[in-house]
Amino acid sequence: MSLERFLLRLARESACLMNIHASRGSVPREKGAWMAVFAEGAIGTIGGGHLEFAAMAQARQRLAGGAGEALVRYPLGPSLGQCCGGELQVSFELVTAADIAALHQRLAADHPPLALFGGGHVGQALAQVLARLPLKLSWIDSRDEIFPAELPLGVVCLHSDPVQAEVAALAPGSRVLIMSFSHAEDLEVVAACLTRQRLHADLPYVGLIGSKTKWATFGHRLAARDFTAQEIAHVTCPIGIPGIHGKEPEVIAVAVAAQILQSVSDHR
Length: 268
Description:
By secondary structure, the protein is of the alpha/beta class. The chain folds into 2 domains: 2-107, no CATH class; 113-266, Rossmann fold (3-Layer(aba) Sandwich). It has helices at residues 2-10, 49-63, 100-107, 121-130, 183-200, 212-224, 229-232, 249-266, and strands at 15-24, 34-37, 42-44, 71-75, 87-95, 113-117, 136-141, 156-159, 175-178, 205-208, 235-236. It has a 6-stranded parallel β-sheet with strand order 8-7-6-9-10-11, with helices on both faces. It has a 5-stranded antiparallel β-sheet with strand order 3-2-1-5-4.
């Protein structure tokens, strides 16, 4: 994730943090988007093109000790070689290692939580993709030594046995992806999610990997546990946006990650 890479590098060298403070009209990035500029190189983006080139030049001027306004207005017109027609206000802030804790809290505040149950082949591929998205990823499995030695930055790994016990501790608003090593374990996690949803209605997306046949079987078993048809319909199975074919873990990961991003956008 860009944020984790930024903070790791900030521990070694200072940066100028650029943040979109406000926007008007058609613009390439939204309010809150950020970019960290170092003496050499940068992490993140505020929209690319001439806008970013001009802003980076101002950031490096500040890093070199030069003066400048804390908030700069950029009309996205001919003067910047862009035809968006909107306007951005970009803030500039010199930051050091002393600011790491505060920056982590501030920049990750709006990242929605996501719980991934299962460390198999698809889970491994998904973790790599999801870790690079603006999400707070918790990766959960009941098996010892299932997680890779080198984890994607920002991923929190949790061992839970039984695995469904972790559902009660999920952050409110979590999206949940279920793909454990066994159908029995999958069913228990789904049931725990539906129980929590019945009590709190705070899991906006619950997705289960599997075929339509698997889901039909699960539907009968969940109904036998007194879940209603409406409650059962809250689960998405199969998962992934339609129209993407292929069963390779990496292909599934892209399709599922896209569906998660759709869910996040739909609830904003």
